[in-house]
Amino acid sequence: MASTGPLISAKFDPTNTYLASGVIALDTHQVRVQSINPSQSSLNSSFNLDKSSRLTALSWIPYTENQLIAIGLSKGSILVYSPLTNEIISELVTPTNLSIQDFHYSKLTQSGWSCDIGGNIHEWDLTSFKLLQTFAINDLLESSENISRISTVLYEEKAHLLVGSHSVYLIDIQERQILKTFPAHVQPIDTIYPIPSNNDLFLTSAVDDRFINLYSISKQNTKAVFVAQASILDMALGIKNENTSVLVMLTENGTLEVFNNPLSNDAPVSANVHSKKKRRQQLSTVQSRSSNASVKLARPQDEIKSGVDMSLSITAVSVNDDSIVLSWLENANLLYFESIKWLNESGEVILTNSVTIEKSKPDLKTTSHSDYGHDIAASKHYNEGNAIVTDGSNFKDLDNESDENDDEEEETLAEKLEKLSTDQKPKQANPNKRKLGSKNAPATLTIVLSQSLKSNDHSLLETVLSNRDPHVIQSTISRLDSSLAVILLDRLAERITRQTSRFDQLNYWLKWIIIIHGGVLTSFPNLNIKLSNLHAILSKKADTLPRLLELQGRLNMLYQQNDLKKEILRDDFNDDSDNGESDVEYVEELDDAELLQNGQDESDDEMDIMDGQDDYMDSDIASGRSSESESESESEDEDPRDSIKSVMDLENPEDEEAYSDVEIAVKNDDISEADEEDQ
């Protein structure tokens, strides 16, 4: 996938005869098909998409003699385009209407396979152009994944799918289950390349990654790692025989890096290793290889007038049996081709050193307006090769002007007035220092954050992200350039993927980026592709929300039931206490007994029983006479012995010393019959 200038994507056909490219036109995306042979330029064609459609995937379909092109769109459909007739044969509409990530035609299943940004996989019949089956990768996994690439491979004599997100999954098509998982890259996978000569091997590369991994399906391990000098945009593999092959990588700086014999099993062993055990360990480890040669395009020395002419960016690459075919842009919109030999006549690899190919600036004068897109009769006062603005998505080539603007930003009127007022007032060290320090802190974080994002300094970025103050985060994001917001979102998504426990800490950064820069981010083209990693993570987090809400509802119900039980128990206790107070009755004899006890304590200790009894009877008769309201029947039936006995029963039996002899006698039933008659 190329991203140089207005070029969106460029793919050679399987025969290396034509190049299909997607470019950005004036207000739409355009698909061009150009022949490598200049004598067949009459077969070149172009097709403009609707203004509402955006190109997201481009793939050749070697289904018939006349090859077709599958054009994936952001609105969830796939256009089947015929370059020979320059028309759309059919439109494949997915039921999900999500942006198409990749399309692959499989010779094993004789059908087309597509995947979208939501993780859905679709199989198409390219004869009737109908949908055969569809399923989601998220139904096979516990977590939510975003599929970026899809391919097919022969495993155990059956066709299986190779699906790539951050890892590669081997899926059984019939059973719809994942058989094996290959941990691959931190970034989303950009290419899955099965080896044609060996069904057990396949290559993978990722976005903004310098590594290409070679995997073995049967052993489920990594056999080799190929390391480039810069991030890889595209790759091509050429195989002459079992021992002769070449792997070519297209890097983001526009050069090619060549790896000779990447499929060879001969691993370099150090000569200093004498132990057989160490030698076997070294052979069993994963091989890490660097490039054997590089290919670069440049202008001749006499034509170099600026730094742009120092090197030409290669846009696409493919490998034939004995040569490497590459293309580059002239005047920002014209494709040119070149072929380089990588094998000599004897079958030996000849690319062993760095090669620089000088290409003079071609004469772009023409007599036909259809070749170069403009009328020769109309004057043209600009050079498209010097254009800077393309679609607003290529921020890597911008100068570091934002930092200079932040440093040289003039003070506002309010800041000048505040500074003037502080100068006129008597100096107070502590309040002014706190105020100025809090004011400059967000600006300092903005500059540091911008530097860390542009220089890809992870340690410096971690220092900024460790801040948890919401006010500082809000002020930092508000002063951050909108072009860096997308990069910051990618960095945050990487950290959340590696450490899910940091989501609460980084949630404030995500919140203020979306609030402050959300309007600008929506205007960027292909934003769903750039933020696909973040979308997958947030979708995974959102899937747990219904379960948490259900759990919260159950907990609230338990709390309410507990509170209701406590309230019911509290009401029952209050009712019992009220009923207990109402059951208390007043006993008049209790007061009389207390008075009698007090009188007996004060009387003489030598008083005999009869005197005490007479005194008690006299007091009892006197009290009976004073209460005229009581009925005579109740006063006559009342037994003084029973009243005294009931009073004595209320007291503690151990305190017998406090009672008189009469009371003790009554309690023990020791009163004689004569005494009863006297009473």
TrEMBL record:
Biased composition (Acidic residues): 400-412, 601-618, 629-640, 651-660
Upper classification of the organism: Eukaryota, Fungi, Dikarya, Ascomycota, Saccharomycotina
GO terms, biological process: maturation of SSU-rRNA from tricistronic rRNA transcript (SSU-rRNA, 5.8S rRNA, LSU-rRNA)
Species the sequence originates in: Debaryomyces fabryi
InterPro entries given in the database record: SSU_processome_Utp12, U3_snoRNA-assoc_WDR, WD40/YVTN_repeat-like_dom_sf, WD40_repeat_dom_sf
Listed SUPFAM superfamilies: WD40 repeat-like
Family recorded in the similarity comment: Belongs to the UTP5 family.
Keywords for this protein: Nucleus
Subcellular location: Nucleus
Listed Gene3D superfamilies: YVTN repeat-like/Quinoprotein amine dehydrogenase
Official protein name in the record: Small-subunit processome Utp12 domain-containing protein
